[in-house]
């Protein structure tokens, strides 16, 4: 609870029932002016209804912000993360985590623009998003007040939420009168489904949970090949056609989804301490990761690549935990970006029945030398006798250890 009632609050607003209730609750609890901010991150929903709902709840047109952030999202957040090949706990492509810093960035910018003294979000007190929203907001605007209604109000059940909505003439969609079967978050990188029918990790997720991918069993019986071109670690073209970052990810989502690629059933460790089961669909991101690792295979030096792989878990954990705007993430990003200077070229992927494989890669920046690795005559490119000295030097410490063990045993 803020030490004093805010006069104007910028609310991260989806137009759904929960954030509409939050909007009215802010007005009634604090008597404050509310500004709504709705971000188009490629969630695939019409955003005009959010404007109409905000107007219905008394928000002046000049206080309604609806912005298309898809290009900024992919260019400045998704692509830098994919340069690192980031996976949280070895599996999760961080689709929700990477969207929160951008939303928070715009929240505090709009607060400054409109003279608001607080921002608000609809994340619950059990999840990671409250941490991500608030750490990002404080990193950018340290004196901002953040209001998290789920940690403050007494609307602790779906029944109480519906009663509040009815009491304040907030429209309720018919399918919201019962409990939703699961909760969904979506953006251009992924969909995330959690809760209700998914809460028992021993039970298979129902087919209707999946929204962006066909079942692998129902995917085409013929493989499809796609070529992705990279420049300095970022995808720039598909099948030779140059595209913007958001357009690339949109096309990769379509290609991957058609072949049932990118499904993940995952029990993760939340930053707040509990384990949570989620169903994720990241078709385009799965293709992008496979392709990026493919082009790195021939353009990235082994020492640089191994160093990158060693810091990746820490980098991914920072994003998952909400530290996108931290100095340590920025330091790691600088190292990662330095490694991408020559990660330029084209990769061919094979898509088939839920799987994707890199089956070809080529680049003018390639470090791969067929002359050195050939099983045929290498015309003097490599003297195999040199390997003997290399092995003896590397074996020296092992020999000394073995000799000591033998001496002490005897």
What does this structure look like?
This protein is α/β, with parallel strands linked by helices. Among the domains are: 8-70 and 95-179, 3-Layer(aba) Sandwich (Rossmann fold); 184-300 and 342-362, Argininosuccinate synthetase, chain A, domain 2 (Alpha-Beta Complex), CATH 3.90.1260. The protein has 12 helices and 14 strands. The protein has a 5-stranded parallel sheet with strand order 3-2-1-4-5, with helices on both faces. Strand 4, helix 5 and strand 5 (145-147) form a beta-alpha-beta unit. Helix 3 (70-83) crosses helix 7 (245-258). The termini are far apart.
Summarize it.
This protein is α/β, with parallel strands linked by helices and 410 residues long. It contains 12 helices and 14 strands. The strands form 3 sheets. It has a 5-stranded parallel sheet, sandwiched between helices. A 5-stranded antiparallel sheet has the order 10-9-8-13-14. Strands 6-7-12-11 form a 4-stranded antiparallel sheet, with no helix packed on it.
Order of helices and strands: EHEHEHHEHEHEEEEEHEEHHHEEHH
Largest sheet: 5 strands, parallel
Low-confidence stretches: none
- The CATH first-level class of the domain at 8-70 and 95-179 comes to Alpha Beta
From the 3D coordinates, which CATH architecture of the domain at 8-70 and 95-179 would you assign? Answer: 3-Layer(aba) Sandwich
Helix % is 40-55%
How many extended strands? 14
């Amino acid at each position: 609870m803020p030490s004093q009632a805010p006069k104007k609050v910028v609310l991260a607003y989806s137009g759904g029932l929960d954030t509409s209730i939050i909007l009215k609750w802010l007005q009634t609890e604090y008597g404050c002016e509310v500004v709504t901010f709705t971000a188009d991150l490629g969630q695939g929903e019409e955003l005009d209804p959010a404007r109409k709902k905000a107007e219905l709840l008394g928000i002046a047109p000049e206080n309604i912000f609806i912005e298309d952030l898809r290009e900024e999202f992919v260019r400045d957040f998704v692509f830098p993360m994919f340069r690192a090949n980031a996976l949280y706990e070895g599996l999760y492509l961080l689709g929700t985590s990477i969207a929160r810093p951008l939303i928070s960035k715009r929240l505090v910018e709009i607060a400054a623009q409109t003279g608001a003294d607080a921002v608000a979000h609809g994340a619950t007190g059990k999840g990671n998003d409250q941490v991500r929203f608030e750490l990002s907001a404080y990193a950018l605007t340290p004196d901002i007040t953040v209001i998290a209604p789920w940690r403050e109000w007494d609307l602790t059940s779906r029944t109480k939420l519906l009663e509040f909505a009815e009491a304040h003439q907030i429209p309720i969609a018919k399918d919201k009168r019962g409990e939703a079967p699961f909760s969904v978050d979506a953006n251009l990188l992924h969909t995330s489904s959690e809760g209700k029918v998914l809460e028992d990790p021993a039970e298979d997720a129902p087919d209707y949970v999946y929204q962006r991918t066909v079942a692998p069993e129902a995917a085409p019986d013929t493989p499809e090949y796609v070529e992705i071109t990279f420049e300095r670690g970022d995808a720039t073209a598909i099948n030779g056609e140059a595209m913007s970052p958001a357009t690339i990810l949109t096309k990769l989502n379509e290609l991957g989804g058609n072949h049932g690629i990118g499904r993940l059933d995952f029990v993760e460790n939340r930053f707040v301490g509990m384990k949570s089961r989620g169903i994720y669909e990241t078709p385009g991101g799965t293709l992008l990761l496979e392709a990026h690792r493919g082009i790195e295979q021939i353009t990235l030096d082994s020492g640089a690549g191994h160093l990158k792989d060693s810091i990746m878990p820490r980098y991914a954990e920072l994003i998952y935990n909400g530290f996108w705007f931290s100095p340590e993430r920025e330091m790691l990003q600088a190292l990662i970006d330095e490694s991408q200077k020559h990660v330029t070229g084209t990769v061919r992927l094979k898509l088939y029945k839920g799987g994707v494989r890199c089956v070809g890669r080529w680049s003018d920046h390639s470090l791969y030398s067929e002359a050195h690795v050939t099983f045929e005559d290498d015309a003097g490119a490599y003297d195999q006798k040199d390997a003997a000295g290399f092995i003896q030097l590397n074996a020296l410490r092992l020999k000394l250890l073995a000799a000591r063990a033998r001496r002490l045993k005897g």
